[in-house]
């Protein structure tokens, strides 16, 4: 039964992505002259992503603490990463951030093309040159007042435990003196296997925005990193 449901679900996604992308193209073209930050396009993309979450009868999603995130102003958002669907559920924040995402996803038809339209930031894992370009691009976005969202673990967890955070997101926050917003993503690790697309049993996912951390309250980027790690780890442990 799960295999059949999975087949139907992914088929619907494949068939509807071109339609949603056509809408994205229209919004991009119409809003480009007055919406340089592409806020409208990002909110449309958020609705596109969340539609696929709501469509799945096995998935439930709730977002708390959304009001803690800014509508305007630079910030660094950091979230734990347990599943492919983390990207979908984090769009439920409905705030105008820019993603930092694997470069491979930008090559996916329609979805990746839409990421290019939105001005999201590609990253080639393991490439020092790509990391430098990513940091420079994120710095530009922060300087323009646009929040950026990163997965500081660098990759999805294998066993569900929170991995060590990399420094980049927190160096950006310190360099540009912008708040860090830790975000705990609960329950998504059970939605899909790491390899394969067969849906699993019902999942109750939750996106929990935690109180912001200010760089001025910490001696350096590493201390800020560790504080964000502790905050997300404690939130995940409380649910477990």
Please explain how this structure is put together:
It is a single chain. With 240 residues, the chain is an alpha/beta fold. It has a single domain, classed as Glycerol-3-phosphate (1)-acyltransferase, CATH 3.40.1130. The protein has a seven-stranded mixed sheet, sandwiched between helices. Strand 3, helix 4 and strand 4 form a beta-alpha-beta unit. It starts with a helix and ends with a helix.
Offer a concise description of the structure.
43% of the residues lie in helices and 15% in strands. It has 240 residues and is of the alpha/beta class. Strands 1-7-6-2-5-3-4 form a seven-stranded mixed sheet, with helices on both faces.
Keywords:
240 residues, alpha/beta, Glycerol-3-phosphate (1)-acyltransferase, 7-stranded mixed beta sheet, 7 helices, 7 strands, globular
Q: How many E-type strands?
A: 7
Taking pLDDT < 50 over at least 5 consecutive residues as the criterion, the unreliable ranges are none
Straight-line distance between termini? 28 Å
What is the name of the CATH architecture?
3-Layer(aba) Sandwich
Strands side by side in the biggest sheet: 1-7-6-2-5-3-4
